[in-house]
Amino acid sequence: MTGTVLHLVMGPDEHGVVRCARELASATASPVISDLEQLPLDSAIHVHFTDRLFGRTAEAAADAFVAFAQRHRAPITVTMHDVPQASDGHAFEARKKCYRRVADCAAAVIVSSMHERLLLDEVLDGGDDVRVIPLPIGRAEPRTEDRVAPRQVVGVLGFVYPGKGHEEVLDAMTSLDTDVDFLSIGSASPGHESMIDELGRAAEQLGRSFTSTGFVPDAELNEILRSIAIPVAFHRHVSASGSINSWIAAGRRPLVPRGRYVEEMETNSPGALWIHENSVEGLASAMAEALRHPDRTWQNRDVVTYPTLEQAAVLYRALFDEQCSPTADQLPDGRWVVPGNRWDLAEPVDRDPRVSVVIPYFRQQRQLEFVLTALTLQSYPASLLQVIVADDGSPEAPDVDGFRTALDITVVRQDDLGFRAAAVRNLGASVADGEILCFLDADTVPEPGYIAESVRLTGAVPDALAVGRRRHADLTGWSAEDVAGWFGGEFSGPPELSEPGWLRDGYFRSRNLLDADRRSYRYIISAVMSCSRRLFSEIGGFDETFVGYGGEDWEFAHRAYDAGAVLAHLPRAVAWHDGPEWAERTGGDRERKNLEALMLSSRITDPAARTHGLVYAVPEIVVVVECAGHSSASLLATVGSVLRERDCAVWLDGSDAASLREQWGDVDPRVHLGRPGDTGRSHMVVHVRGLVLFGEHALRRMLATGADHMTVDVGGSGVVECRSSRSNARAARWADELGRDRLDAAEGLFGHMHRTAVEFGISTGEHQPNLSW
């Protein structure tokens, strides 16, 4: 999508939104279209929207936008400007409805501040993908060496309209000498032309000069902004301000009232603003101070503003890339490596791999005969089947002699040391020679198409971890001959029992796990599970420390997901369990369930499994903090902010890490020196560079985006980058065969999200923070 997205820009060139839109279009190399009727219907579109540019009323603006969106056949993303807020008065409800209708048409919505994001949350119905990309700030021009005193003028930049603060600025100037003039830089907003004369008369009554420049071309603007004594931006209801940014770009440090948006700007660009109390009296005091200390109205040379136009363009281009239609990569042998969990993108593969069916068994001779009979009736070629019965220490070995003429069958056994389903499945897999492993419990009878349906996906997508549909029936009194008659169509099947609702609902909500996330491991049950033998081996098989019923399949699936497995439910791969489910995850004996939970919580990094405040050997998040540029105090501040998130471990990377930490005097076992080793069992690895402070729940908010690779800009000097274990593992597995670099392969398979720190409550710290109390 990058390079082909079109920017729809409506309105006059002098309008601030139009100017911003054209700058961003140029920076992202995006063609600009200004006519709704000329939009190519199949091209991705980005729109800079404010209702005032799309219609005479909010309703008309929404009608115009929705009409073109309904015709359009490609993704539409929207930057919303002038977000509705209660200060709109009687127009608020109409504008809310307008913006809600526009958002409903968009694949993603961008706003220019977190303040606007919070305002928009009150407008939208929820569920919209809303991003924050701040308005770009031009690089501040240094102050010239000629110390010519600026004119004794207070300047306010931007359109004149109610709420811009002109009246309040005039009131605040009563404490200044009357030889200090008032200059309004810009023209009146349409419909408010009379305000210019009104301000002039009010100033005259106060014995003060008031002048309006009207529209100022860009080529002349900086000279005016640099010529006055006091730069002021006293917006009453500001949510994102191009005029404040223009002051900064001109090298000025404007006087602004404290508020949510201003504090957000201070976080992004520390020191760029002169912040005063949000009142006329506060402004008056600040203006008097500015006259006494004019140097404070100029930007210091060490101030780093964020974002520049190019930094904003990177964020926009990354969002456009996210909207691209993902594609699968074909391996040399014809199989597919798919992006994310998109197994639906793999085309059918004309191949019939050898399949090893592993059947864990314990004293189930009659039921085993049902399963083996069903395997002789499979539509998949018998010559490509290997059947392995893995006996978990039964007093007598399973009798399979009656099936040897029809099946390639092997029996392996282990001692009876308790219920060891994990170990016995591994034992069966260890003698498998098939490319595909199909695990079937000895009391779960597969329909004739079961193997073929399982192989259809696992044979085409080598990363697939597939689960079939386990239905339930009462086979009491049945024989193997009855099973053969049932599947042969000679008579009807046995009485059907209900399926577990938690499984059925989970598959439905996730579209058969196509929309799987990191908690979908709960829907993988080993009774009807299949995967490639290579994937099983790389994952390390089942965890043999599980003894007793339950948990080993959840742990295996969780580990598989972090190892890059693609989860899928195959509703047409049906196998019938003899009897009701023994222990649904939502019920059963509490003591047994607690034992299972205790086993799982130390092994899987699902936050739902870890709610008791303990520290585990395998943390959910590994954070690597680069020590370069840090003092001991700033490093402590960064690490301390990270450890607000309980389930994480921190590694201090750098030649001076030990000496910096030594000054802390701590013995915290969560903090380590150097670089971490194998992080594959953790969910995410986060690299932190610069003086970065994480707010409460900041890491958790980052994980909530679902991104597998994300870069977060922290002002102009810090960066936080996170990568999931699953993206690293899948890229490592296939990069060579795809002929790609690992990082490039990971980005191609999982994307690369760019976000801003303010969205997550991340900020820039100080080199010497105040640690005293």
Q: Tell me what the CATH architecture of the largest domain is.
A: Alpha-Beta Complex
Low-confidence stretches: none
CATH superfamily of the largest domain: Spore Coat Polysaccharide Biosynthesis Protein SpsA, Chain A
Total tally of structural domains: 4
Radius of gyration over C-alpha positions, nearest whole angstrom: 33 Å
DSSP helix count? 25
Distance between the termini: 52 Å
What is the share of helical residues?
25-40%
Query: Which class best fits the helix and strand makeup?
Result: alpha/beta
CATH topology of the largest domain: Spore Coat Polysaccharide Biosynthesis Protein SpsA, Chain A
* Residue-averaged pLDDT: 92
How many DSSP E strands?
32
Major sheet attributes: 9 strands, mixed
- Approximately what portion of the residues adopt beta-strand conformation? 15-25%
Give the CATH class of the largest domain. Answer: Alpha Beta
Net shape: elongated
